[in-house]
Design goal:
- By secondary structure, this protein is of the alpha/beta class.
- The chain has ten helices and 15 strands.
- The strands form two sheets. The protein has a nine-stranded mixed sheet with strand order 14-13-12-11-7-10-9-8-15. A six-stranded parallel sheet has the order 3-2-1-4-5-6, sandwiched between helices.
- Helix 1 (10-19) crosses helix 9, helix 4 packs parallel to helix 5 (112-125) and helix 8 packs across helix 10.
């Protein structure tokens, strides 16, 4: 199977590195406005995870500053979109109409209506569409999902998901809400998607927070209320640029115990109601490799991506948009009619 990566910023370079580790898949093309990155040199590219970029051999690849030569190439089976979020819908629909399978970096789109259009086009084209919501493939979050799916912990009473990082010093488009959705939208979409996956859509939501784009600060604390009485909190966002460290964590309280994890040093653990403590089994897989490998498997089998369905990715965008509206209402509860 041959795949092309469109967009060679931080996430594009991350996807290229992951793709090259998957047997039986060929990186056949790349597209970027960055002429240095088009040569395979990613040493100038930075992000909020990992070290400095690497250098790869792109000789023999179709390397283009324009998307059309990639989409018109009959030898390319699928494209991996790592473009600014405002371009996701337009380019994904064009790629689907060109007969390509499409993996699109999160968020799947800037607006829920755009995501719905992408899903409808994938159905018409008979091609696979999947959003790269990597949390679903990260071992600590897979451990949480697996522990909850066993059905032995009883009702969920409370959950907290937190994600924080410095405002990005890279990718100038990320700092423009009309292109990225803003810091909270781009970052907390991970945790909102996980909540949709684990708990479904809430009945009501409320949110508070603060945004100062000039200083790079964009923060939110949102509450989701569910019919069974459970309450979920999603909190975090961008802090001041450069030095503030990245972190992510969760705490889920059930009748049978508390599940807890922090990237700052707490492994996924179940603290049982009987006073026991069990470290959850965690695989060693790389989440980016796993998500791309899964997408490719779905393409080969002609199977819809049940582990990461685009309908749930669309719901996450709609819920995230509603959270931003709720933040503007400063704590007022509003109905979740997405």
């Amino acid at each position: 199977m041959k795949l092309a990566v469109l967009g060679l910023g931080f996430m594009g370079s991350t996807h290229v590195k992951a793709l090259l580790e998957i047997p039986g898949v060929k990186l056949a093309g790349v597209c970027s406005q960055d002429d240095v990155a088009l040569t395979g040199d990613f040493r100038h590219i930075q992000g909020n995870l990992g070290g400095p970029g690497e250098r790869f051999d792109f000789s023999g690849l179709k390397a283009s500053r324009d998307i059309e030569p990639i989409l018109s190439d009959p030898d390319i089976d699928a494209v991996d979109l790592c473009l600014p979020t405002n371009l996701h819908a337009e380019v994904a629909i064009e790629a689907l109409r060109a007969g390509k399978h499409v993996l699109v970096e999160k968020p799947i789109a800037l607006h829920g209506s755009e995501a719905d259009r992408m899903i409808a086009e994938a159905e018409r084209a008979g091609r696979i569409l999947m959003s790269a919501q990597v949390l679903r493939f990260l071992p600590p979050y897979m451990a949480l999902r697996d522990a909850m799916k066993q059905g032995q912990l009883g009702l969920i009473r409370s959950a907290l998901f937190r994600r924080r990082c410095a405002a990005p010093a890279w990718g100038g488009w990320l700092k423009r809400p009309e292109l990225s959705g803003g810091g909270v939208f781009d970052l907390l979409i991970h945790d909102v998607d996980m909540c949709v996956h684990l708990f479904g859509k809430p009945e009501r939501i409320a949110a508070t927070g603060y945004c100062d784009e000039a200083r790079g600060v964009d923060l939110m604390t949102a509450q989701f209320s569910y019919a069974d009485g459970g309450v979920v909190v999603v909190t975090g966002g961008w802090h001041h640029p450069k030095s503030y460290p990245f972190s992510m964590e969760y705490t889920v309280v059930t009748d049978g115990g508390t599940l807890d994890f922090s990237s700052s040093g707490r492994a996924p653990t179940l603290y049982g109601e009987d006073g026991t403590e069990h470290t959850l089994p965690v695989s060693a897989q790389d989440g980016y490799v796993a998500e791309i490998k899964y997408f490719i498997e779905c393409c080969r089998a002609g199977r819809k991506p049940e582990m990461c369905p685009p309908s749930e990715s669309a719901d996450a965008v709609k819920l995230m948009r509603l959270m931003l509206e709720a933040r503007n209402r400063n704590g007022e509860w509003i109905e979740c009619n997405i």
